[in-house]
User: Fold this.
Amino acid sequence: MRLRTTPNGVICDAGGHWVDLGHALRAAGAEDRLVTAAEADVVAVLREGDEALAVANAAVEDARDDASATANPEEAGLPFIPRSMRAFMLWEPHVIQSSRMLVKNFFPAPAWRAVSLFEKTGRTFPKFKPNERFWEAPTFYVANHAMALADGQDMWMPSHTKALDFELELACVLRSPVVDATPEEAVNAIGGWFVLNDWSARDVQADDYRRNVFGPVVKSKTFANSIGADVVTADSFGDWKNATGRVRVDGEVWCEGATRNPAHDIGEMLAYASKGERLDAGDVISTGTMPGCCGLELDRWIQPGQTVELEIDGIGTLSNTLSATAVPTTAVP
Assistant:
């Protein structure tokens, strides 16, 4: 199922025809609690579990030809309000190329000259490669879940950076709590998948990388994330490691990528994140930047007035226009 949240509740894609889920469930005589969930948001529906989703799917099919159940997908905003957000980093090629471009663009010139000279041998500069810890345990940081933008919302130009960047990421949202979970338990807690843009300040990231004891995810990553309107239920999406996507800027394809060959699987990631703490419904887990799918890796830089559109096949698109007049805000009422 592909779900969105509108001011009137959750809607469902019935083969290109969007259906008001609450209306469909009432018509089907579903339990009141499921109808109430459908009148809330996507996470409320996902929390009801597989049996409830089966009931919802059947109700939507029955309502496919009911004109009174028709919903307008253009009214959708954030599919849910994130409870928390964790962003992982899983692909070695992304680590290497991003590190290379940070040095090229933002480190002192002698550093780039040294790197260039070394890499003329055909070898990767050793410091660009992830260390053993990258392979031993999943790497992630805790993002600012309170600064979430919706699809179509204008993105501001942050005052503390001159190098704003996008990142195409596949993310999931939990539907149930996990504590000290096994990988199998963790996978069962996933409710659905969606598109996420992890906006990044690259000049700030480079400076923090060089000089901040807390590392390169302090002010370079905390000011905004965009969340796509579409959430595809876990049972419908399939194997997350087979996802493909692309980024368009003003309609031009800048890059394409895929999620194959990650350093860690999603169950392992969630199990690690839940060690000694409780994750719960509404928590967001991003798998990280698809290799090659950020401006830093491309050495191409977005500018005010441009529209950045992220797409993941089987889910949908996420679009934001960079506005010189927009101010920091969220899509949360």
Q: What stands out?
A: The two ends are 26 Å apart (CA to CA).
